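Subject: Sanity check before I submit

Could someone independently write out the structure tokens for this chain? I want to compare against mine line by line before I put it in a report. The sequence has 478 residues.
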Amino acid sequence: MENDPLSLDEIVRRVNAKAADYCALSDRIWAMPELAFEEHRSAAEHIAMLEREGFRITSNIGGIATAFVAEYGKGGPIIGILGEYDALADLAQVSGVTEHMPTAKGAPGHGCGHNLLGSGSALAAVALKDALANEGIAGTVRYYGCPAEEAGGGKTFMARAGVFDDLDAAFCWHPAVLNEVLTKSANAAIGARFRFKGRASHAAASPHLGRSALDAVELMNIGVNYMREHMPSDARVHYAITNTGGDAPNVVQAFAESIYSVRSPHLPNAERLFARVKKIAEAATMMTDTSMTVQIIGGCSNVLPNKALQDVMYENMRRLGPPAFDEADLAFAEEIREAALTEDDVLASVAPDNISLKDVFLHDGLLAMPAHEGCDMGSTDVGDVSWIVPTAQCQTACFAIGTPFHTWQLVTQGNLPAAHKGMVLAAKAMATTAADCLRNPEIITRAKAELKQRTGGLAYRCPIPMEVAPEDLRTKAV
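---
Independent answer below. Compare away.
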């Protein structure tokens, strides 16, 4: 349609008009990395930008001070675009170098690219808002400021609070090394802290009077390791000993703690496996004459893909084309590949389905939609949103192929021009797909029918109990 304000060309024009402002926002967030639930400055930066654009802000969503919703428009359809901005511990890093150069010892850094994620999503929301505002089109766009993805539950708490319930469609993205529409599911997960309490005593003079909490932790770990042979092959169990009870070997440890994360492709299966883990912990207390408490500290649902939305997003990404990387972008990608990445890193980025890309430094194509859906072994709180509203995700090439997530190698690339180009492509992909939903409500109708089919008519059930508060998730769980 000529002069259609929601056409791909018009949305691209609107994204390009404000891209520089939101690349600058991304760089500011990169320079102020904040950990999960502590993203006060990062959230404030996003809010300030969106308020200037005319969005109405609702803060403190789900009891989280750094969660917010920015809304523009009236009536339906209601489109949600999800953003994140939390960083990771111990990943502070100088930008644009090929060696490990922390800016401050032990300081956080954006090792998962959430500076780009939040800003790119905001750019998409603003471009869509501009189309609605200038043309008087019915519809509402919401930007969801979602904290604490790395802690395993920011969106889960927001879902529990009901803030996604009236959406018609939701879109999100993730910075990565490849350009693609994400079609796989992801595992549901449950995280818990196990605290064991015993009785201290002198380990040599009176060991019979002691009851070792550390022994209970070790026996639990042993029991779970024996369980691994007898659990579904697509499930995962991880643990970390977070408190050994002290450094003195001549003291029977009166307190010890471990954290467990249980994953499975479906939440009920994860819950059943977690119940077995709890039984093993209880058995460990019986063997050691200790006591134990269990605290849920994280959880998320499995992702429900939505082909109706994915097909539209894929067609838009095909028409948009890949990021326009230049010689300087390619030169740095080659340099960091040679200096700081291994062959295994590269193969992990592209194997097994895209091995032909192993000699490419920056991805300048678009991966084809796979014939069959699979399941990523990781977990994301986007899963909780996908159970409530049809949701589509993409990822774009922001980093050199071979760059692992959660590393200084990713941090050092996070505010470079190549990362900006990938971010802007993601904004265009989300905004054009959202615009298509506004232009053609039949897309939403098909997407909702597919969601109903995938859920089997089951309502969303939050994996985090009501008694668990956001502050309980400050330790990474999933």
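---
OP: Matches mine. For the report I'm noting this point. The mean pLDDT is 95.
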